[in-house]
Structures are given as C-alpha cells and as structure tokens.
Queue: 2 jobs
Job 1
Amino acid sequence: MSLEEVRRDWTRLGADEPLWAVCVDPGKRGGRWDAEEFLATGEDEVAAALGRLEELGAAPSPGRALDFGCGAGRLSNALARRFASVVGVDISAPMLERARELDRSGGRIEYVLNTGPDLRALPDASVDLVYTDLVLQHLPPDAAAAYLREFARVARPGAALVLGVPDRERPTFKGLVFRYAPWPLIRLAQRVVLRYPAPMRMHTWTAERIAAELEAGARAAGRPAPRIIASDEYWGGDHWRHLKHFVTVPSDGTDGADATGGEDV
C-alpha cells in the first residue's frame, strides 16, 4: 500500500460519495447527507473535544488550527468558529472541492491539497491546534508515522493535539476479520459485497506508538516531546476500539516525560 493508492481511492470516494465517505452511515448512501446536518456533526465533535481540552487544563490559544485529513470540511468549519484561521489538508482534490463549496467560515479556512509524505507547506511551530479524527488509520503505517512526526514539528509550544484513531480490533467476528484476513480479500468484499466506491484500508495505532513518533518529531525539531494527557474511548462499533488522544506540547522547557501516562491509556 502506498500514498498514491490512498490518493486514488480517496479521489474516487471524494468524487462519488464525499459526505458519506467522511461520515459512513448506511442510511446516507447515495447523496442522502443533508449538508447542514453533516456540518452539525462536526460542530458537536469539535465542541466536545475542545471542552475536554479545557477540562484537562490544556485549552490552546485560538490562533491557527490544522485539520489534517479534512475531507469535505466537516471539522474545519467547526474549528473556524473558534480559531482565527484554519488550514485544512487533504490528499483528495474532489474532497477539497466539496469542502470549498461547504465553507461557512467567511474566508478563515485555507484548503490545501497535500499528496506528499510531509507537511512542507506548513512552517515549524505555526499552529496552535492539530486536529485529526479517523484519518491516520487509512494511511500506510510508515506514512502515518511520518505525519505524526510532522505534527510535533508544526505545533507551537503550548499547542494541543487531538488525535482520533482505532487502537485495536475488537474481539468480534468483524474485528477478527480485519485483524487476520488478507487485505486483497477485505478489499474485494468492500467493493463487491458492501459496494464501496473505493476500499478503505484500516490500521491500528496504540498510544505508545503515537507517543514515540511525536517524541521523534519533537527531537528532530529540537523541541520538548508532546505528552498524551488523556485517551478517551469513543465512537463504539463492532470492528475497533477507537481512542481520542489529547496531547499537550510543552511551552516551559520540560522534557515531556511519561508521554503515555495520561488517563485511561
């Protein structure tokens, strides 16, 4: 699996079913997502996540936010209600076209096509919040690791990160299929049985692996390591256990020790 394969698959998903591909709901296939209802789901999610950061004493400055894997702009619009500017990055040009159509920010969102293995369009220490939800698992593991290191580079001291990923398959039939079945078979089932416009590959990410990549990125940038301060289980389902990791970037010269020592990791 390569980034080019991911780009091709999500280009097709963005062209055929952009809103459903972002929020997979069997009842919304065939263009049945109402645009405002779709955006409202992003508002609910961002409000809850930023409320959690505030509860943890880690609310970021309301300067610039990065929405990584922004898709059709579901979260970007919600972030733009709370930050002075938002940059939404995605690998799919059709997704970004739809995001621009749904832009309700009055010009505060910049959408950027990013097909490479890094975030070179963003300077060091340039964002106050990195937000990504249910994106990293669709990428090849080495590419996801590189982006995690980039998050540590582009985050300002005192910034926060919100990272939503599955950390393991559930011990159910569907979960075990994804754990043990060969990818070509899963790909065929998604295309033929489930009739996906393009397949969605999945990888799990543990808190320990995430913390290690963030630390490596910070070290390369000469910065203290970000620290996971909480990992909350959310969005159930019978395939994977999903965790939303809340991360702080030190601003006082601390070394970020105990990087996986937050709540419920």
Note: Strands lie at 64-68, 85-90, 109-113, 127-133, 155-169, 227-234, 240-248.
Job 2
Amino acid sequence: MSAPVFNESIPSGGNPLEIDVNAPYVGLEYHYTYLVFCGFIVWLIIPGIGLLYGGLARRKSALTLLFQSLMVAAVTTFQWMFWGYTLAYSRTAGPFIGDMANFGLKNVMAAPSPGSAVIPEIVFCLYQLLFCACTVQIVVGGAFERGRIVPSLVFGFFWATIVYCPIACWTWNPNGWLFKLPSLDFAGGGPAFVLGKRKHVGDPSHGRPHNTTLVFLGTVLIWFGWFGFNGGSALNASVRAMVAAFNTNTAASTGVLGWVMVDYIKHGRKFSVVGACEGAIAGLVGITPAAGYVEPWLAAVIGFITAVVCALLQNLNDWMHIDKGMDVFKLHGIGGMVGSFLTGLFATSKISALDGVTIASGAIDGVGIQVGRQFAEITAISAYSFLVSCALFYILKFIPGMHLRIAEEAERDGIDMDQFFEEQIGDWGVFDEFNKRSRVLAISAPGTPPVEDVVVPMDGAGKKD
C-alpha cells in the first residue's frame, strides 16, 4: 500500500468527528506500532542513566542523580510540547531552526509525519521527544555532585531550546543544512568546565563508584533502550531497521571487548565491571550515526575502535584540567566524533537502501567526499554546542537565585543532604554519615561503649528511638 500524502489544507490530518483519520494508515499499522514500541523502550534509557550516574557517584550524591533523571524527563517533555518540537521539526523550518508553526503542538496529530509518511505525526513527536530527554539528561549529568537541582533543570530547558533543537533541525529536518549537505547521522563539555572541580580534600572516595551493581543495572537498561534508539530511527519497520538493531547489539558487544582489553593490558591482567559498562556505552554511542548505513561486521569494527579510543583517553579530564566524573565528554563527545567519522568511511548504499527509499554511500563505496561532510558535521555541532552551552551556564551563574554550584560545606557533606528533605533519605546509616555535624562528639569514659556505637538522638524528623 502506498504511503499517505501530507495535505497542507488539513495539517492536523483531519477532524476525527468528520473523517476516519486512521483510514490512510490501513495496512501500514505495523510501521507506527513498531515505532511506538521503540519509543517505549527508549524511555528506559532515562532511568538507566539515573542508575548509571547514581552508581558512579559517591553515595552521598546518588539520590540527587536518581531524582534528576525523572525531573529532566518531565521538564524536557514540557519544553518539547511548548516549543521544542516546532523548533526542531516544523515543516516550514529554515536551514538552522524551525518556526512557531507547531507551537504548543498545534496540528501535531494524525497527518503523515515530516520524518516518515507511514507514521502519524504524534507518534513521530513522541519518539523524538525521548531522544531529546535522553540527550539533555546526559548533558546535565556533567554537573554531578556539585550542581544545584533547580538551576540544572532551568539549564536543561534552555539547553534543549537553543542547543538541541537547532542541531536536530540541522541534522534531521528535511530543510536542515546538514540534512541537505548531506551528512550521515542515523540516530543522532560545558557544565564541568564552568562549574569547576569538586572539592575532595581528604575524601578517599572521590572518583570511585559507590555501587557497581547500580552501574551494571543502569548500563543494561541503556543497552536495551538503545535498541529502540537506533532500531526505530529508520522511522519504519523495514529490513533496514532490523539491521540497525542488530548493529546496535554488535557494536555494544565489541565495545565491551575493546574496553576490557585495554583495561586488562593496562592494569596488569585485571578486569573492571565499570570498564566493561563504559565499553558498552562507547560502542552504543559510536554505532549510533552508522547503525542504518553499515554492514554488521563493520558495526563490530566501529564499536571496537570507539571503545578502544575512549578507553585510551582515561586521563582526558586531567589533560583538560576539568572534573567530569561521568565521562560525558569522553564517552558521548569523543565517542560520537569517532562514530561519525567512521560512518563516512563505512556507509554503504546496499544497507541504506534496505528501507526501499534511502541511498547513502561513504568512502567504502567510492564516495570519499562523505568523510569531509562528516568532518563538517563534527566541527559545526561540537563548536556550537560547546560555546552555547558555556555561554548559557555563565548567564545562569549571574542570575540571582540561579547560582549553579552548592556551597562548599554542603558539597563536603553531600549534595543529597543539601537538596532533599532528610526524611526522604530513608537509610539512617546513610543519614548519620551525611549528618556528621549533628553528632555529639564525646570521649568515651572507661567501661562505656565506643563513640561509634553510641546512638545519638536527632532533632525533628531525624529523631531516633
């Protein structure tokens, strides 16, 4: 069955009280059902990132990162419905950013989407919203253990508006300048630089993950969600989408192998669970721009190379004199650059054509200029996102009430205690550790229990029996 055609006179797809808006998609239901399913599993990346970041952080900051993952999703959803979607995907967009044609999701309903005619626009809107939410969460994570929650959420709203949406328009909107170049991007550093390093004088736990199990669980959810991230980016249920999903798993697996190999050699035949998890994420990031363009064996090469490159840059934070415990730039920045470059080398038309529509080739097909196009994409996106992100942080830094960094004393004791009601911590052992200032420091008399065994009453809601 042929795909429905967008009608400018009825941009919403029609009044459901007068016509059957489902009729144009009869026989095509499997396409949008598949994409809705992909969107649902992409959502799992959101708690996955929260668990990953919570496990990598020190225990006294883990709660903040879990809470922040849900809050970022909520704020980004509002931003997307308010004006994010129209800035990125309006049909009347310019080469750099969209207009207000779909402000407040006006007319975003049953008409064929701008990304694919076989899916309704509301399905496309939901799917792309989840991309935005995951990206904002990754970026905001760069301020972990020293950034206040409210300013971080405000930053996330405006970062999505002035960084993510324009770049999405450049890359995926048919009117975007990178889309027309074309650069090949199948699925798509400021915070730490501006906030400065964490205070960790005398803290032996600095830089060490407090819960490797959470890191592992978060990685598993991210890996699973990435099947939807890449597998749905064909925007149809074609063979190309299935190849993209296969390539996703392949690259993540070889990413694990690459990172573990580097750790095994570097650390004297020792293994690292966290290293294996970082390798999987590096592989996922590396294959994202290439998933629907390369053969499975080349996907394996991309995952392996990306992970090895990222693993060899373990001292990147020291070289750049920044403190980014979540390795946002190393994994997602460097990993994305490597993946984009390798896409220019390995993209082949016989894979991209599996959806029956797309023809795209790289150097392996004799189109060497595609490597230069990928460099143009890397340079433009990297420069724009870094400079605008830093500018946004500096602006917020000087707005009353929007100072980003918590006080040094609060950072020492733990951002969780500074940002949450004490009742919500729920673990009195953790509460005692975080609230050391409330303890009574006494010298035990002969015959009395040691100080650490003495139960000290707390005031208010923190009272112990």
Note: The longest helix spans residues 59-89.
